[in-house]
TrEMBL record:
<dbReference type="InterPro" id="IPR036188">
    <property type="entry name" value="FAD/NAD-bd_sf"/>
</dbReference>
<dbReference type="Pfam" id="PF01266">
    <property type="entry name" value="DAO"/>
</dbReference>
<dbReference type="GO" id="GO:0016491">
    <property type="term" value="F:oxidoreductase activity"/>
</dbReference>
<keyword id="KW-0560">Oxidoreductase</keyword>
<dbReference type="InterPro" id="IPR006076">
    <property type="entry name" value="FAD-dep_OxRdtase"/>
</dbReference>
<feature type="domain" description="FAD dependent oxidoreductase">
    <location>
        <begin position="6"/>
        <end position="402"/>
    </location>
</feature>
<dbReference type="GO" id="GO:0005737">
    <property type="term" value="C:cytoplasm"/>
</dbReference>
<protein>
    <submittedName>
        <fullName>FAD-binding oxidoreductase</fullName>
    </submittedName>
</protein>
Length: 421
């Protein structure tokens, strides 16, 4: 299957555009299909926290998380909130979510799989950024996790599993943390630095630059919303869109949280859900971190971007159509002020920007990467949840390998779409 094919890639987010670049590298003809602007504010890639955390191998669900579900339902502003009105629709996904993290062994299996997917991701992104002419947008200078105490770190299953899968880090006491981050609140007394990790200084601009590079290299962009596929037996004939058919002999579903309807149209009713995320950003802040920081108590990433100081995190389960709850962004803002006391509380509202978007998430925290059951001409590449940006570099390579019939560079069994079918 190494001959050149016409590949239609549905979705021009990070996964889609990198898949396009890598498919082009394999000698295929590529058409990108997306109704929106690559890197635009409508895309999950745009609102990403911006860190390239190759150590983000722990799925959201861990043993015992089921005990917290009542609190998720009661507190609409907690780190993970579930809207009561959406609970009936979300319940099948939530059950699979809880079961996937029921035992340490299940979480460990996911950690090993995600480590394969994410290892060396900052380096892969750096090479892509250089190709696209924006090397300055990717920095490989580590990220810091901060904790109120050493005990908070020692009691965290996630860090024990990271050690098992080969992640290394540097431990910092309170004095060493103050030297690195003098503006950080003194309540944080212990930290770790994962030096292999990196950050993206502007995720939206990065994806836009990758898309421009793809287009300049020969990829065609069609502004349309894909609705399904036209098959002849098990052979793909075309991708169907709201504006007509796009003839092709291969396709990639990389439509993020909107991939579910597309997979169902060819007989794969996959349990994809949106983990709705928010960010808040302060333009020209007077204080803040020197590096990218993850605060264990706030469950929030703080990162410098070229547009300002961004704080991102939290999860809301409420579907694709519900209106945003902007109080969740205000919570992020308040956490940001609490973490960095020198930030003035009277920052003009015009300098505080908020964003809301949709993370595409599978219950077990692993994306779907593999063939559709109805046709090996259709490749799935979605469901990355919290690791969409960092995981997109290797995912694009894997997609190109599947399109060309080559052996994938990592084992894909843990990401097989049919694991839930």
């Amino acid at each position: 299957m190494s001959q050149s094919r016409h590949v239609a890639i549905i979705g021009a987010g990070a996964v889609g555009v990198i898949s396009a670049i890598e498919a082009l590298r394999e000698g295929h003809r590529v058409t990108l299909i997306d109704p929106g602007e690559p890197g635009g504010e409508q895309a999950a890639s745009y609102g990403n926290a911006g860190w390239l955390s190759s150590h983000s191998v722990i799925p959201p669900a861990e043993p015992g998380v089921w005990k917290k579900v009542p609190f998720y339902l009661i507190d609409p502003l907690g780190p993970l909130a579930i809207r009561w009105s959406y609970l009936p629709k979300a319940l099948p996904w939530l059950i699979k979510y809880l079961l996937s993290g029921w035992t340490e062994a299940r979480v460990e299996k996911t950690a090993f799989a995600l480590r394969d997917l994410l290892k060396d991701a900052p380096l892969l992104h750096r090479k892509l950024a250089e190709e696209a002419g924006v090397p300055e947008l990717i920095e490989r200078n580590g990220v810091m996790h901060v904790f109120p105490s050493r005990g908070n770190f020692d009691g965290d299953l996630g860090w024990r599993l990271r050690k098992r899968v080969g992640v290394k880090w540097l431990e910092l006491d309170a004095n060493e943390m103050r030297q690195r981050e003098p503006d950080l609140h003194p309540r944080y007394t212990f930290g770790v630095v994962v030096e292999e990790a990196g950050r993206c200084r502007d995720p939206g601009a990065y994806v836009a630059a990758l898309a421009n590079h793809a287009l300049a290299s020969g990829v065609k962009l069609v502004r349309a919303r894909a609705t399904g596929f036209k098959l002849s037996g098990d052979k793909l004939v075309a991708v169907l869109t709201e504006t007509g058919e796009i003839p092709c002999d291969a396709a990639v579903v990389a439509a993020g949280a909107r991939s579910k309807q597309l997979t169902a149209s060819v007989g794969d009713p996959l349990p994809l859900e949106t983990e709705r995320g928010y960010h808040v950003m302060i333009e020209n802040p007077e204080s803040g971190p020197r590096s990218s920081i993850m605060a264990s108590d706030a469950k929030m990433v703080v990162n410098w971007t070229d547009k300002g100081l961004r704080a991102a995190g939290t999860v809301e389960i409420a579907g694709l159509e519900a209106e945003p709850n902007w109080k969740r962004a205000e919570i992020l803002r308040d956490h940001l002020f609490s973490m960095f006391p020198k930030l003035p509380r009277d920052v003009p509202a015009s300098r505080i920007k908020t964003w809301f978007g949709h993370r595409p998430s599978m219950p077990d925290g692993r994306p779907c990467i593999g063939y559709a059951r109805a046709s090996r001409d259709i490749v799935y590449a979605f469901g990355h949840g919290h690791i969409g940006l960092v995981g997109s570099a290797r995912t694009g390579r894997l997609v190109a390998q599947l399109l060309s019939g080559k052996a994938p560079e990592i084992p894909l069994a843990p990401f097989a779409p049919d694991r839930f079918l």
